[in-house]
Every structure is written in C-alpha cells, then in structure tokens.
Amino acid sequence: MIGVKTIPSNLRAFSAAQLAACTLGPAGGAVEGSLLVVETLGEPGSIRTLEERSGREVALYRGDRFVAVLASRHSGTSEYGDVPPRLAPPDAPALELLARAGVVGRGRCLPPARAALGFTRVKVLGVPLRDGRALQLRDLCPTPSSAPAGAPAVPTVLVAGSASEVGKTTACTALIRALKRRGCIVGAAKLTGTGRLRDVLAMHDAGADRVHDFPELGLATTYTAAAPVIDAAHAMLGLLDASGCQLVVAELGGDLLEANADRLLADPVLAQRTRAVVHVAGDVVGIVGALPLYRDLGVRAEVQPTLPHGRNALGSVERLRAFGLSALDVADDAACDAYVARVLERGDA
User: Fold this and answer.
1) Are strands 274-280 and 133-134 parallel, antiparallel or unpaired?
2) CA-based nearest residue to 153, from 55, 219, 38, 234
3) Residue 206 and residue 332 in one domain
4) Are 82 and 104 in contact (CB under 8 A)?
5) What CA–CA distance (Å, rounded) separates 28 from 44?
6) CATH number at residue 253
7) CA–CA gap between residue 282 and residue 291 (Å, rounded)
C-alpha cells in the first residue's frame, strides 16, 4: 500500500481507495499529466498548503508525502515552471510545487513577493502503477469525446481578464447570482488556467446549477498544447448544453495571453455561442489596453469592462468615460441585474 498524507484537488477523480489498489513503481520518462508520489524536501517555501479533494487547505511540513501531477504552469503572477526532460536519476533534480492543487514540475521563476521563500521542493518517490501501468491524470477522467452531442448550444458569457487574481471568479459569482435572481438555470465552467477546486466551489455557492472545469477532463493546467484545451472546453460546454442550462458563465483563467485563453477566444465554435464578454482588470489601463486584443483575436461580442476592484471608483469611471466606456460594478446587485437583463434580451436564453 502507498501511504500519503493527502491527494490534492486536481486529482479529484483519484480516491484513497484507488491509490490503495496501486503499487509504487520507479519513475522514468517525464510525461505531462503523469501521477507521481512525492515527498517534501526541507521546510515548505512559496506554497505551504495543499488544496485537498474536499477543498480544504492542508498544511505541508518537511517529509510529507502526497500524490502530485506533472504539468507546466506559466503564470504571469504566481509560480512559473515546466515539465522536465526526465524524472529518473542521474539527470533528474528535485521537482518544485507549482500550484496548491498538486501540480509539480521544474520551477523556473517566482514572483518577487515570494522569491525569498524559494520554491517548495519535492523528491519523486515513484509512480502509482495500476495493473503494471503508470497512471496519468487522463486515465482517471472521461475523454472529451464523451460529451453528449446534438444538444443546442447554450448562450454563453465569457469572463476574462488582464491578469490572475484581479477578480474574475468574483465577477462570475456576481453574474451567476444575478441570473439566479431571474430564475434562470445556470451552468458555469472554468475553461483555462491552473486548476483549483476553490473556483468551482465558489460558482456552486453562488447558485450555479452545474459546474465543470478542465481537471475533470484530464488537464492539470491549460499551459499545454492548444488542441486538448479546446477539446476540453468544447466537452465541458457540451455537458452544460445537455444539462438543460439556459445560460452559461465561463471563466478564462490567467490573462488574455496565457494558458491558451487567446486560442479559445479565437475559436469559432466558442465565438458562435458567446453572447457577451466581461473583462476584469486591475486598473483602467488594463481595460483600455486589452480592448484591441479582443478585436485582434476576432471577438465580435460586446466586451463589458468591470469596475477595477480596490481603485477609486469615481476616478475609474471618469477615465473610462473619456474613452466612451462604462464599467460594471459587480459588487452592485442592481447593476448586475440590469446587465444580465440586457444580455438575455439579445436572444432567447
């Protein structure tokens, strides 16, 4: 039996019972999406907790063992790292923890605020084997082709932004709550970024009737090739279409240029169902500067900026007015109600 402290949330389809039925094999080639059993080396650094499959944050200590998934993360605001060329000695150094949801890889850069802490380093103890075969995340999840076909596409509001941690999930929850106040059946999805159960739970808490994200379809992050990310997005939206939702709120994690968000915005299938785009930025420059990017990516739906969180509201409103723009205050229920009413009036939702 393989003994570990926890199984993180990006491996939510992998239970303790399934792990108990596995044997531990030697690590070999570094394959994106591979499951690994790892142990922390020294005291934790920049990431000091893991998000469990339940969503609970679990503190990490020296020598803790857990199941991880090998993947890249090229975040502009958080840990940045890649899949290394090999895992087996003598070429393989220790790996680094790249995300609280259990993503590990070769750490390359930390943001200045956490650089002094260093990465949380782990050593690979081996790989879980099932019937003699090393497990990958996609082995635990349905393939994108499993999404139901034939259901009519549900109108979708995309929520994107200028950076991570600027309030995109908060905007999603505000829109979901406004739609629920109108009695709508609401679907929600996290289409790109670094998987985190926290965002899924927030959408559920806001009242979304059904929520999907990409780890359910075998992607630990979307910092990978574009094709599987687009396939997974189509699959998630297809599942929501078939569930009877009347409108979908879908978040693109990270910024417009990372994690394949730009490829999804340019995707003609997604464009056809997109009724509006809500753009979240930390300041007015992040709004004005992003609008040409949407046009360059072929987005034809109306782009609605939100009021930058934590900024002087009047200053932001007046600066945007100079460009002929207005901002949605997602903290104002009445404003959100009026906005979703306008979106719903654009067609039969």
Assistant:
1) unpaired
2) 234
3) yes
4) no
5) 25
6) 3.40.50.300
7) 14
Whether residue 120 sits in one domain with residue 159 = no
Q: What percent of the chain has pLDDT over 90?
A: 87
Which helix (H) or strand (E) is 82 found in, with range?
A: strand 80-82
C-alpha 305/C-alpha 199 separation (Å) is: 21
The span from the CA of 38 to the CA of 62, in Å, is: 12
Angle between helices 168-181 and 197-206 (to 10 degrees): 20
* Strand, helix or coil for residue 83: coil
Tell whether omega for the bond before 26 is within 30 degrees of 0, i.e. cis: no
- What are the E-state strand segments in 208-254? 210-213, 247-252
For residue 321, the tally of other CB atoms under 10 A from its CB is 11
Residue in the block written with tokens 């009047």: 314
| Burial class for 306, CB neighbours closer than 10 Å (0-12, 13-18, 19+) | buried
Task: Inform me whether the pLDDT recorded for 271 exceeds 80.
Answer: yes
With 0.70 as the threshold, say if the pTM is over it: yes
How much is the mean pLDDT over the chain? 93
Same domain, 246 and 203: yes
Distance CA 52, CA 5 (A): 10
β-pairing, 156-161 with 49-51? unpaired
